Amino acid sequence: MSSTLLAGRLGLAESRIPHADRHGLLWLERGKLSVEDGTLHFLAAESETLKAGDYAIPYQGVSLLLLGPGSTVSHDALRVLARHGTLLAAVGEGGVKFYTAPPMGQGRSEVARAHARLWADEKARLDVARRMYAFRFGEVLPHRDIAVLRGIEGARMKATYRLVAEQHGVNWKGRRYDRQNPNACDIPNQAINHAATFVEAAADVAVAAVGALPPLGFIHEDSSNAFTLDLADLYRAELVLPLAFSVAKRVQDNPELLLERELRKEAARLFRKQQVIPKMIDRTKELLHVDDRGGNP
User: Fold this and answer.
1) Angle separating helix axes 259-274 and 187-210, nearest 10 degrees
2) Structurally, how many domains does the chain consist of?
3) Do 208 and 121 share a structural domain?
4) 184 and 259 in one domain?
5) Is-contact 123 229, C-beta < 8 A?
6) Residues 210, 214, 219: CA angle, nearest 5 degrees
7) Is residue 76 part of an annotated ligand binding site?
């Protein structure tokens, strides 16, 4: 079988590979990534996003290569990608899961250095946090105390939970989450837990693609992926809650459905349709004041 070079910007055909865009992401699934005659190939089975065939991969123009379900990768492929500084991660369908071993780094450090500068300056760090709240609430809050901002966030989110639950016909009894036993809560709360995890995975992809520093959060502080949590929270009201409550209602109406599976499928569909990860990449660059080439504007 002759190989097909994926044509188009970055050597990729957007009509054939969703998310193959200016962000330098290449999504592959249901196939084998290997090296033949010094060229990276992906032998694909028929899938929702790619026709069956043997594709030559122009890895030199790709920032982050994402392998979806049903994919395998050879040792030679890993060697070639590492040599050329092309990142590789395994993801769930649509980016609802994100796996790397070990955590990845970028070949350039401009974004990381910009991130570190903003985080290390107390005033700049608070300014970024205030911008994050402005993105979420549609207004710049006048307060300059992070504890006060968190309190305002908590109150507004309580109201948002009630509103979105009502819009989807879900009986909402309040946010309940037992970290030791996350499945002990009711269906709406379980749905929020799953949906939040999927959106955090999408944020993981975006942060890795940009080369930002996951531990350096502007609102979250203690977690090793604090910045990822910051980024994911920007989408809690507009993505996490509608996703969670819509599927929770579906499962409540049809108890035979599996909650996590239904949420995972719906999240993958929404991530593709709404281009969630590319939007997260743009938002990350905006927050850190970096341009598409990874430098300061």
Assistant:
1) 40
2) 2
3) yes
4) yes
5) no
6) 115
7) no
The residue among 185, 188, 183 whose CA lies nearest residue 165 is: 188
Instruction: Name residues whose C-beta falls within 8 Å of residue 51's C-beta, 6 or more positions apart in sequence.
Output: 16, 44
- Consult the annotation and say whether 115 binds a ligand: no
295 assigned to some structural domain: no
Range of the domain at 84: 3-91
Q: Does 292 appear as a known binding residue?
A: no
Report H helices in the chain: 75-83, 110-120, 122-137, 146-167, 187-210, 226-233, 241-253, 259-274, 276-288
Outline where DSSP puts E strands in 21-119: 25-28, 31-36, 39-44, 53-56, 64-67, 72-73, 87-91, 98-99
Task: Please give the single-letter amino acid code of residue 13.
Answer: A
Task: Report the predicted TM-score, pTM, of the whole model to 2 decimal places.
Answer: 0.82
CATH (domain of 152): 1.20.120.920
What is the tens place of the pLDDT at every residue in 27-75? 899 999 999 988 899 999 998 888 999 998 887 778 889 999 999 999 9
Give the C-alpha distances (Å, rounded to integers) separating 73 from 40, 89, 188, 269. 11, 11, 38, 25
**What order of strands is seen across the sheet that includes strand 64-67?**
25-28, 64-67, 87-91, 98-99
Residue 132 CB contacts under 8 Å (≥ 6 apart), including other chains: 218, 219, 230, 233, 234, 287
Single-letter amino acid code for the residue at 262: E
For 184-193, how does the pLDDT look when each residue is reduced to its tens digit (9 = 90+)? 789 999 999 9
- Asked if residue 265 and residue 209 are part of one domain, the reply reads yes
